[in-house]
Amino acid sequence: MRIARFSVREGSPAAGSVSFGVVEGDPARPESLVVHALAGHPFGQPQPTGESYRFQDVRLLSPMLPNKIVAVGRNYAAHAAELGNAVPDVPLTFFKPSTSVIGPTESIAYPPFSSDVQPEAELAVVIGRMCREVPLERVPEVILGYTCANDVTARDVQQREGQWARAKGFDTACPLGPWIETDLDPSDLAITCTVNGELRQAGRTSEMVRSVAELIVHISEAMTLLPGDVVLTGTPAGVGPIQVGDEVAVSIEGIGTLANKVVKRG
């Protein structure tokens, strides 16, 4: 099941309203897609409202507004190596603020304090229920689904400042979308990043140093995860700079494509 968060475009009696919905149809043929609105949130047993919209009549938003985003660095050995880093003995975790989240139709605003902004294609895990100290065998029970993420990074700031709060937490630094896929095996999915159609990153989730389940165990050992929280699982090799005017697209097998333009911060 594909769960989206959307607003209704002008021209409908429901124009401007924001809802969750189930997307049905073939993503390769956007004109075939229909969004069936849900009452309330998608956790537990989602209930349809009976209202449906053509895909062209809605605007996709970030599929979730998380309380927190817990990200994992250097979880692909080749990416760690390309930046001159070793794979850490334990997962390297950090936070991105909720204010960094944007959706698939929004723009990445190039921060004025950086001259080297880089995209990082990542599989994002969306938590479906409150949990803490989750045993490995029960991890699937706490996951709502998966979406595409772009861990946009001001690389020069990351290297200059040492800690990553500004480098990875600036406004618009966490695009998510296009929707949440709830029926997916995350163990071996193709993941790519293109810039203006040119392939930059190409990897598979099977190349992760630590699996999705291992990351959830590690993170939940320390903190409570809430419904809607997002875990970013690391990026494959191939990172490089982007510029104002570029279009960045993150694609993950079985989910879809998240595309964002890069603009100058106003």
UniProtKB/TrEMBL annotation:
<dbReference type="InterPro" id="IPR018833">
    <property type="entry name" value="Rv2993c-like_N"/>
</dbReference>
<dbReference type="InterPro" id="IPR011234">
    <property type="entry name" value="Fumarylacetoacetase-like_C"/>
</dbReference>
<protein>
    <submittedName>
        <fullName>Fumarylacetoacetate hydrolase family protein</fullName>
        <ecNumber>3.7.-.-</ecNumber>
    </submittedName>
</protein>
<keyword id="KW-0479">Metal-binding</keyword>
<keyword id="KW-0378">Hydrolase</keyword>
<dbReference type="Pfam" id="PF01557">
    <property type="entry name" value="FAA_hydrolase"/>
</dbReference>
<dbReference type="GO" id="GO:0016787">
    <property type="term" value="F:hydrolase activity"/>
</dbReference>
<feature type="domain" description="Rv2993c-like N-terminal">
    <location>
        <begin position="1"/>
        <end position="63"/>
    </location>
</feature>
<dbReference type="Pfam" id="PF10370">
    <property type="entry name" value="Rv2993c-like_N"/>
</dbReference>
<dbReference type="InterPro" id="IPR036663">
    <property type="entry name" value="Fumarylacetoacetase_C_sf"/>
</dbReference>
<feature type="domain" description="Fumarylacetoacetase-like C-terminal">
    <location>
        <begin position="68"/>
        <end position="263"/>
    </location>
</feature>
